[in-house]
Amino acid sequence: MIREDMLARLIAQESEAGGDLVSLRAIVEEASELGAERMLARLGLTDAHAQDDLVELRELLRAWRDAKRSVWKVLIEWLFRALLALLLIGIAVRGGVTELLK
Q1: pLDDT single digits (tens) 13-51
Q2: Side-chain half-sphere exposure of 32, counting CA atoms within 13 A
Q3: Residues 6 or more apart from 6 whose CB is under 8 A from it?
Q4: Which residues touch 92 (CB under 8 Å, ≥6 apart)?
Q5: 33: CB partners within 8 A, 6+ apart
Q6: 2-8 long-range CB contacts below 8 Å, 24 or more apart?
Q7: Residue 78: which of 86, 90, 89 has the closest Cα?
Q8: DSSP letters along 33-88, please?
């Protein structure tokens, strides 16, 4: 509440004084910090472990992205192998290998 009171006082002061650049900048800075604190409170990131939680979430997100990248890489490799196998089977059929098997 102290920050909210400070912001209200700054706004009242500027409305009376006409507002100079330094005071307006102070109002914007106080409003920004107050808004950031409110958002962190809404997200539940105001406790002492919030930074550790964010670090852990970033690590989990990085691991998830790495896993997705690995899955796509393996999937593409298997599709490429399947296409090569089909190509080899096609060449073998066309080359008459089926006649040799009879």
Answers
A1: 776 666 676 777 787 888 889 999 999 999 888 888 988
A2: 6
A3: 30
A4: 98
A5: 3
A6: 3/30, 3/33, 3/34, 3/37, 4/34, 6/30, 7/31, 7/34
A7: 86
A8: HHHHHHHHHHHT--STTHHHHHHHHHHHHHHHHHHHHHHHHHHHHHHHHHHHHHHH
Residue 99 structure tokens: 């006649």
Identity of residue 85: A
pTM, 2 dp: 0.50
Residue type, 100: L
Structure tokens belonging to residue 82:
């399947």
Kindly state the tokens that stand for 71.
């899955």
42-62 pLDDT, tens digit per residue, is: 988 888 898 898 999 999 999
